[in-house]
Amino acid sequence: MTRFTVNDQAVEYRLDPATPLLWALRDASNLTGTRYGCGTGHCGACIVDIDGRAVPSCRITIAQAEGSFVTTIEGLSRDRDHPLQLAFLAGNVVQCGFCVPGIIMAAAALLRRVPDPDEATIRAAITNLCRCGIYPRLVDAIRHAAAAMRGEEVIPAATRPGITPAEAATSVPALSLRPPAR
To answer: What is the percent of the chain with per-residue pLDDT over 90, rounded to a whole number?
Structure first.
């Protein structure tokens, strides 16, 4: 049995110690925000924070994580109000969203080490692959999040998605099922 802490909760996995951390998180703990991308650690979709470091979870076994503190995207902020999450929403960074949890976790580890990173530092630290090409907005969002974490900027909270039935009824013209009058 392997024991460590995931998102501030002690866990004990009764899995083969050679099981990649990625699959323990996704399959045994149902923390599906950590994504499988390449399986070689190159794409960054599976990055989690292990003891303050951004680590591709597909490349570390649960035995290697023994005694560690692991934070996934779900554990970054219970209410999705971490400055990085807010900055990504405010900056319309996300397109398909597949790579974003890994990018945010890599950025969170960076901002803990370097509270005011310049563009070159961000680009060097965030090596995640994004097929949608969000890189220019990504750098801006990380800089805004860093400023918010230093107390120099406020990022407005995103509104909840969806509209009420009353709003839907007034925003779309009513459809008539009757044939037009002759």
So the answer is: 81
For 129-170, the pLDDT digits (tens) are 999 999 989 999 999 999 999 999 999 876 655 656 566 555
Residue from 171, 176, 147 nearest 139 by CA: 147
Please give the pLDDT value at position 32. 95
The two three-digit tokens of residue 15, written as one number = 């899995």
Beta bridge partners of residue 4, listed in sequence order: 11
Domain total of the chain: 2
DSSP state of 151: T
CA 146 to mean position of chain CA atoms: 16
> Hey, which bits of 7-63 come out as E strands?
9-13, 47-50, 53-56
Angle at 90 between CA 88 and CA 96, to 5 degrees: 50
Domain shared by 62 and 92, yes or no: no
In terms of residue numbers, what domain contains 103? 83-149
